[in-house]
Amino acid sequence: MTRPLVSLAAGLAAVLVLAGCAGEPRSNSDGPAPVEDDVLGVDTGLAPCPEQPEATTAGGGSLPALAFDCVGGGSLDLAKAPGAPTVLNLWGSWCTPCRDELPVLQQFADLAGDRVRVLGVISRDGVRQADSFAADAGVTFPSAFDGEGALMAELGLNALPYTAFLAADGRLVHSELGPVDSADELRGLVAQHLGVQL
Fold it and tell me: H helices within the chain, ranges in order?
């Protein structure tokens, strides 16, 4: 009778030690622990972020005034107006639905040309992991790097993808939480919320 109690106690002790090492569990929707990474010096297929006008974002609904370096070069400053109607998508290599959505965004970016900008924000991720993920998906549209997930935190998000529709003056006119399933669906959302027919 003593031997089973000793085995049980040893088993419980092992479970407690392992639980202590694991720390707080994270669900996939929270993303991985942020990775410290340097955006500079990464050989990438992602385009540089476009230059923004000096005009600040118009009043009313807008995204938090954060700024990020872009993986392909340049920067994204959400305090400045984009200067063109913009679809801004938060994504990460850890986000399972992003795997299907990113090619849809690229298809839309190719269709939209200069009429609507498509920009990404790599969120809670590492530069190399995200770049590899984008390459696998055939994505070349510009993406800023937010490894710590500051924008997700400011928006109160714990899951991705998230897509913001920004007017040329920077006003947030619509947002979608969850994946957009097709370029046609995205065309409809852009026509409805940004007033651009493609």
Answer: 2-22, 96-112, 127-137, 150-155, 183-194
Residues of the chain with pLDDT under 50: 1-30, 33-36
Cβ neighbour number for residue 172 with a 10 Å cutoff: 17
Helices 183-194 and 96-112: angle between axes, nearest 10 degrees: 60
pLDDT of residue 78: 96
**Of 118, 174, 151, 166, residue with least CA distance to 31:** 151
Tell me the pTM: 0.81
SS3 80: strand
Q: Which residue has the tokens 């190399």?
A: 128
Identify the pLDDT of residue 62.
87
139 within 8 A of 131, measured Cβ to Cβ = no
Domain borders along the chain are 67-194
Distance, in Å, from the CA atom of 142 to the CA atom of 144, rounded to the nearest integer, reads 7
Given this structure, which CATH class describes domain 67-194?
A: alpha beta
| Tens digits of residue pLDDT in 44-78 | 999 999 999 988 887 668 899 999 999 999 999 99
